[in-house]
């Protein structure tokens, strides 16, 4: 007769296995891979077509030199070098390129969890990791070969190893971080402030040595910058804009709106304050969260109600500083996430051209503080935590696909901003791929007039849109005779340049007829034939 199974022993064993770091990492990776597997072999999108993949291929074909050649946009080459190295090992393919980004996405989610465990407990880490991954911007960027996901992942990894005082790993991740994109320097400066604030009682010599060690990634960036200047003759991409001090606050307001209010995050920012008063919680630990909740609720009121505009919104900085003081007085480690959030938003306010993905570097730290607030506020009502987590996650998922519509080009003016903040970008890829396939199949010998990024889609088969290069006249072409040479016009509102020029060309300057329109959830790509006279 067999002995009955001891359920308590089985549960204890399951908990023991689940608490193992390797098992946790595997579970996070499988979860991320499961959600992103459908996009693993899709054609590349937007900046991946024009800069990131061509730059990595340039390095790959030139034996991993640390320069991007004609595809140099001023960014350091770590991600491009990584792609080139992986291709050298496994050969070039789109699914390998996407898998590299998916791995970085996993690292960002997993290390957000680890920092949450470090700051408070496992529950905080899990909630923050869930919110980060299911956030529409992070989820979408996890399938696009851009620099934002690697930058975000390396940022949170660098912070984790700094908090854990694992110096060799910190130096490795920090160096990779600054060699991914210049905003990574914000994280290094935040860590130096943290080291200075927590080590001011150390002997001066010891503190200086520690600061110098933690500043090594800055030196690494300076070395690369010097090499780049020597090799190319310039440091950064030339700027067309003159920045004014008066622009900073409105821009800062815009950046904070993206982070604190967008994608239902105003619920996470304001819900806890409302519930705090409704439930009349009196735990002393709650007082540490008061300034944080007040500052977020204040920002919500200013942004949603439009009270006072940018000048009044500047008052957000005051409760923000109070927040830092209160939370850091309880846990000094919280200085790091707060400093990264603030310095990231402030530094981005010097950059007039802003894509939403630029703010992604602050996402893990925002969700860590939000998860911490949620767990502490409902520490005595634990049943609320999973319910609130599930509801907010569901709200995030509802924003994966937006309602952005682009009717026929002749019916509306240009309305095609970059669609990469959620999964709508797949609609763009779908319509562009269908249009390119149609042109290649039925008009293989035609000369096609189009603009960026469609010109690259038709001329670079490695991007996944065509099987061989087609003849294209780019919209940047200068000259009066180009109109006589074109047979087709390939138009999409989801391109960023020359849409008005192309619209005028189709409606006024040339005799054209619409051959085929490809649509998907309000996104469109259109092929026009030029009728020769």
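Q: What amino acid sequence fits the structure above?
A:
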């Amino acid at each position: 007769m067999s002995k009955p199974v001891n359920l308590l022993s089985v549960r204890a064993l399951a908990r023991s296995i689940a608490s193992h770091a390797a098992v946790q990492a595997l579970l996070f990776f499988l979860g991320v891979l499961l959600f992103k597997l459908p996009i693993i072999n899709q054609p590349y999108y937007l900046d991946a077509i024009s800069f990131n993949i061509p730059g990595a291929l340039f390095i790959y074909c030139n034996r991993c030199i640390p320069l991007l050649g004609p595809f140099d946009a001023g960014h350091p080459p770590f991600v491009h070098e990584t792609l080139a190295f992986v291709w050298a090992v496994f050969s070039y393919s789109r699914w390998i390129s996407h898998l590299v980004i998916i791995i970085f996405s996993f690292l960002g989610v997993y290390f957000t969890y680890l920092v949450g465990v470090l700051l408070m407990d496992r529950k905080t880490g899990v909630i923050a990791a869930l919110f980060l991954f299911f956030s529409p911007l992070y989820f979408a960027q996890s399938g696009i070969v851009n620099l934002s996901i690697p930058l975000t992942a390396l940022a949170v990894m660098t912070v984790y190893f700094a908090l854990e005082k694992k110096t060799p790993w910190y130096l490795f991740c920090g160096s990779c971080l600054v060699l991914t994109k210049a905003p990574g320097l914000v994280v290094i400066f935040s860590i130096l402030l943290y080291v200075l604030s927590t080590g001011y009682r150390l002997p001066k010599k010891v503190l200086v040595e520690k600061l110098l060690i933690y500043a090594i990634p800055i030196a690494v960036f300076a070395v690369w910058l010097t090499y780049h200047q020597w090799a190319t003759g310039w440091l950064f991409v030339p700027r067309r804009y003159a920045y004014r001090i008066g622009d900073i606050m409105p821009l800062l307001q815009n950046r904070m709106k993206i982070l604190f209010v967008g994608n239902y995050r105003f619920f996470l920012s304001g819900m806890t304050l409302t519930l705090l008063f409704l439930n009349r919680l009196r735990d002393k630990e709650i007082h540490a969260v008061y300034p944080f909740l007040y500052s977020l609720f204040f920002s919500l009121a200013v942004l949603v109600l439009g009270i006072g505009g940018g000048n009044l919104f500047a008052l957000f900085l005051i409760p923000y500083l109070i927040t830092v003081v209160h939370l850091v007085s309880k846990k000094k480690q919280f200085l790091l996430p707060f400093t990264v959030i603030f310095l990231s938003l402030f530094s981005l306010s010097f950059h007039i051209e802003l894509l939403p993905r630029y703010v992604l570097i602050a996402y893990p730290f925002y969700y860590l503080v939000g998860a911490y607030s949620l767990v502490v506020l409902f520490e005595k009502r634990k049943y609320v935590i999973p319910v609130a987590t599930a509801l907010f996650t569901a709200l995030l998922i509802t924003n994966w696909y937006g309602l952005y519509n682009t009717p026929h080009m002749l019916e509306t003016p240009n309305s095609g901003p970059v669609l990469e903040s959620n999964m709508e970008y797949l609609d763009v890829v779908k319509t562009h791929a269908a249009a390119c396939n149609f042109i290649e199949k039925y008009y293989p010998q035609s000369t096609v007039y189009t603009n960026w990024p469609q010109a690259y889609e038709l001329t670079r088969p490695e991007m996944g849109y065509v099987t061989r290069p087609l003849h294209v006249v780019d919209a940047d072409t200068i000259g009066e005779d180009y109109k006589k040479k074109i047979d087709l016009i390939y138009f999409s509102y989801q391109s960023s340049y020359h849409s008005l020029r192309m619209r005028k060309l189709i409606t006024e300057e040339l005799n054209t007829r619409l051959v085929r329109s490809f649509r998907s959830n309000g996104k469109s790509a259109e092929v026009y034939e030029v009728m020769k006279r």
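Q: And what stands out in the fold?
A: The longest strand covers residues 512-520.
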